[in-house]
UniProtKB/TrEMBL annotation:
One of its GO terms (biological process) is respiratory electron transport chain. PROSITE patterns: FAD_PCMH. This is FAD-binding oxidoreductase. Belongs to the FAD-binding oxidoreductase/transferase type 4 family.
């Protein structure tokens, strides 16, 4: 009998029938994530209901050296949750309870299968705020957010998932349960082990519970769209806002080709500015429209802001944000998107964009590369639509574009993954951003936590 048959037979001793799916009964959502990189039906999907069951499943797989892949909402975009046909998936969907909201500690204790949106809603109902927010909020799970160290629009103000995890329960590959369920802000009792599992893409342990740090609800936000003569003027506005008002809750930059395309796709939407400019930022900031106007006026005088509009109503604010959101949404639904998610020191992103776009245009004049992103977090996204490219050349095209983008990132000593992780898609380029010694220590950590290499094998780097 194969190891996967043996593992499932032993799991049946403590899991009910409805906690195991095989063959046709496996929902197609377990085949791939949002990267669409590969579609594979895994051997089986198990749905534990308790940490004890997770522990038993892992102990069995470890003993049999059977690979097992944790999956959350499968909204990841790096192929990190995709399992091979001989692998077993462990899905935490049935571990989705909110155990407690502590208004004094301002924490929420949850099981890892809770969706991000449910966590956000529960915090709001308790007059608190969970600030991590990504487009896949309705499906992605807290465990997946932790495993990818998710970012999103509000990182500039509140930080990434890592900044919101105070405590964690995690099951190691051999079934041992680490209880790291801390609620305190300060706790220097030894190594902070939980940090190893944040952003580890399910390769070091399975997160089963977490203590999340909550924030006060934000005050009323003012939304603004500004136009600039060049990239560094946009950065200057950000620093000016931080000095004179506060750090914005979101600060997103778009270049003109992105802006124009977005407007052309937004039905009945005229340009809210009087003309087109080289570069734009849309942002939300706490403070009145009047405060903001005074600050903007100073940069108008120096010519570092060319035009601006401040939303007067919620509907106008929504329309301004649509300019930022339309392009990725439209390409994802009607085209064939190829996305990059890179970072480097904020002052260099403008130069990076110019060099990278130029190299793409020279090698692939038929393609339009669009640059935008969470600039306040030194994070640039690039999106291309490969819809009209011939099927036979797509793989070569993707390889060629990877080579260009990651080579320029390396030149700038940046990161090939700002917030989406490595998974399978960026594995071959990890050494562009991580030096040899650091890579070896990562491999040693993997060996320490998962000596048999059963947990999400070959993700982040190829297992030996
Ligand atoms: C429309 C859209 C917009 C997005 N926008 C952003 C954005 O702005 N910023 C950003 O950072 N990301 C963004 N993402 C990607 C984001 O990283 C993921 O959506 C999310 O964090 C992954 O959660 P998930 O539950 O779907 O995990 P999955 O995709 O299921 O898994 C992702 C990884 O986590 C592992 N994993 C899942 N659960 C566990 C667990 N309990 N324990 C251990 N490992 C686990 C998996 O093995 C895999 O390696 C976006 C995605 C979409 C679809």
């Amino acid at each position: 009998m194969s190891t996967q048959h043996q593992a499932i037979a032993r799991c049946r001793e403590f899991l009910a029938d409805h906690q195991i799916a095989m063959g046709e009964a496996i929902n197609i959502r377990h085949y791939t994530d949002w990267s669409n990189y590969k579609h594979i039906q895994p051997f089986a999907v198990v749905f534990p209901k308790t940490t004890e069951q997770v522990s038993k499943i892992l102990a069995i797989c470890n003993e049999l050296k059977q690979p097992i892949v944790p999956q959350g909402g499968m909204t990841g975009v790096a192929g990190a949750g995709i399992a091979e046909a001989n692998e077993i998936v462990i899905a935490l969907d049935k571990m989705n309870q909110i155990e407690e909201i502590d208004p004094y500690a301002s924490t929420m204790t949850v099981e890892a299968g809770l969706t991000l949106e449910e966590a956000q809603n529960a915090a709001r109902a308790a007059d608190l705020y969970f600030p991590v927010d990504v487009g896949g909020r309705g499906s992605c799970q807290i465990g997946g957010n932790i495993a990818t160290n998710a970012g999103g629009l509000s990182v500039i103000r509140y930080g990434m998932m890592r900044d919101h995890v105070l405590g964690m329960e995690v099951v190691l590959a051999d079934g041992r349960v680490l209880n790291l369920m801390n609620k305190m802000i300060k706790n220097n009792a030894g190594y902070d082990l939980k940090q190893n599992f944040i952003g580890a893409e399910g390769t070091l342990g399975i997160v089963t519970r977490a203590v999340l740090k909550l924030s006060p609800q934000p005050k009323e936000l003012t939304t603004c769209l500004c136009a600039f003569p060049d990239y560094l003027s946009a950065v200057k506005l950000l620093r000016h806002l931080q000095k004179r008002l506060t750090t914005p809750n979101a600060f997103e930059v778009m270049w003109d080709e992105y802006y124009q395309l977005s407007l052309s796709w937004m039905q009945n939407h005229a340009n809210p500015l009087s003309q087109h400019y080289p570069i734009y930022a849309v942002f939300d900031v706490e403070g009145s429209a009047e405060d903001l106007e005074n600050i903007l006026a100073e940069l108008f005088e120096t010519g570092e802001i060319l035009d601006a509009v401040i939303a007067q109503t919620q509907a106008q604010a929504h329309q301004l944000w649509l300019i930022r959101e339309t392009v990725p949404a439209e390409i994802s639904s009607t085209g064939r998107p190829l996305c990059f998610d890179v970072s480097m020191p904020i002052g260099q992103l403008g130069e990076f964009k110019a060099i990278c776009q130029d190299r793409i245009a020279k090698q692939y004049p038929q393609l339009v590369s669009l640059f935008f992103g969470h600039i306040g977090d030194s994070n640039m996204h690039i999106i291309l639509d490969l819809k009209d490219q011939e099927e036979q050349v797509i793989d070569d095209l993707i390889y060629g574009l990877d080579e260009i983008v990651y080579d320029v990132v390396r030149q700038f000593k940046g990161s090939i993954s700002a917030e989406h992780g490595i998974g399978l898609l960026k594995r071959d380029y990890l050494h562009y951003s991580v030096d040899e010694n650091a890579l070896n220590v990562m491999k040693q950590l993997k060996q320490l936590f998962d000596p048999n290499g059963i947990l999400n094998p070959h993700k982040v780097f190829k297992s030996s």
